[in-house]
Design a protein that fits this description.
Elements: H1 3-15, H2 18-25, H3 29-43, E1 48-50, E2 55-57, H4 59-86, E3 91-97, H5 105-116, E4 120-126, H6 129-138, E5 143-147, E6 155-170, E7 180-181, E8 190-193, H7 200-212, E9 218-222, H8 226-234, E10 239-243, E11 254-259, E12 265-273, H9 279-293, E13 304-305
Parallel strand pairs: 3-4, 3-5, 7-11, 8-9, 8-10
Antiparallel strand pairs: 1-2, 5-12, 6-10, 6-11, 6-12, 11-13
Helix pairs in contact: 1-2, 1-3, 1-4, 2-3, 5-9
Amino acid sequence: MELRHIRCFVAVAEEMHFGRAAERLYVAQSAVSQQVKRLEQELGVELLTRNKRRVSLTEPGRVFLDEARRTLWQAEKGAEAAKRASRGQVGRIVVGFIGPTTYSIVPEVLGAYRKRFADVEMVLHEWTSAQQTERLREGYLQVGFVRSPVDLDALAVEHTFREPVVVVLPEGHALAALDEVPVGMLADDPFIFVPRHKEPHSFDRYISLCRQAGFTPRVVQESYHVHILAALVAAGVGVGMAPASVAKMRWDGVVYRRLRSPAAEVETAVVRRRGETPPVVRAFLDVIGEVAAGEDRPALPGGSDAG
């Protein structure tokens, strides 16, 4: 049974006239008559009674008409669903991100994506870069926001975002009066850093900045979450380093200052698995590209305080 046969029957049943049904379907009247006849032959029942004056439905025809309409509606619905899926408008996407990106690009991307693709189920995970890399390799995670560099053998980098590194200071610190802090002036301070086993690229970047300034930092405390870092800095446990976007987090007793070093940057990469990219993933990546194209993320203004 073909949809075109059903479509012709429904048109004739609703118009009660083969000529008008043909006009409605933009086909020849003879073609409509042939399609309906083939449908009746396939079903083995007469759906219409015909004479020179009129066309009418038989009792089986009346019963079949209701089902035929439902069949056409379901077919149209299925076709539209398939088209929407091909455009990435329906489906499911699993996205991972590192915590600090919630102060930078991630909220804007998620907001823009949700507005345009409200029917896509979005599953979000805050994971370390290493955890995301593993989940991407396993095939569970589809897109990740991770710290660079990236394992390019397994993953494809779609976008990168750079931002300055700032020092997180207690507001009463002697260097808080400066707009820009030379890294070497922090040599005598105790440090609070992200654990290396959690985010090795961030840890190594911060250690490298210190060593380039001529000292090895004295790490007295570790903290993976930036709000805990801020709390510990406010309590006088030590100073820290973080991406500049973290300065959006207001915390009493804490200030953020730029570092005077051209190497004081961190990079976030948007990654996916290598291979075929499903439409829902491609649509998400396109939104990231659009947000990135419209972004102008300046360095932290001098004197940015959180308290």
